[in-house]
Design brief:
single chain, alpha+beta, Endonuclease, Chain A, 2 domains, 7-stranded mixed β-sheet, two-stranded antiparallel sheet
Length: 253
Amino acid sequence: MNTYVPLLQEIGLTKGEIKVYSFLLQHGPRTKTPIVLASGISGSKIYEVLERLREKGLVSETVKDGARHFDATSPLKLKDYLHHKKENIAKAESALKGILPSLLQMKKVTPLYPDISVSYGWEGLSAVYEELLERTKRRGKVYVIGASTGKNILMTELFFTRYGKKATERNIKIFVLFNTSARKYAQRIEQKIGMNYQKKFLFHKTPTEVTTSGEVTLITIFHEEPTVIKIVNKETANSFRQYFLALWELAKK
């Protein structure tokens, strides 16, 4: 496979589009038949592929002696295409923020059938924390039981620095029961995010952390790569908040 193929796929071209575009780049203006033979795309589909490339600004068309000829535009057009795609993604992301609360409300759960899912790795953990913060109202509260450094201290600290800053931006108040072995870790994160947690310390070290806000509860196991169980259920979240409040009374500052 040519080295440029994966990159062109990454920015949004299909394998068929890449075959046609690279053929036209190398051979100049061509009519339908040689493009079909070179690309292996059927005659009934080739105009669809050419039209998509034209919409991307990568193919031009002229008519000579009554026949349609197609040619590749300059590869510099790929930068224009990618820039336009980034603009569209930014617009879509902005629009999504406006409708996300409504979409989250559409996913109904019941006491008998809570919404439970399991995610793996730092990307998976990031996705569930994004949802947790989206579901938490501004000036809302988040409760954490058993906060620790985990096995991968560097990644854990980077992760919670990032999401601590996001919570601060939303004026979310965070109550944390840290492990007693995590005092310096807690101080470092507070310094980096510029905010002090409402915190106390209990238990020397626990590998599992429970976070709850609103109807969402996250149970996270911090190995080198974290595993997180997300439960969306009001009764479950209320139960963990009761556990938190009881443990808060026993914990030390």
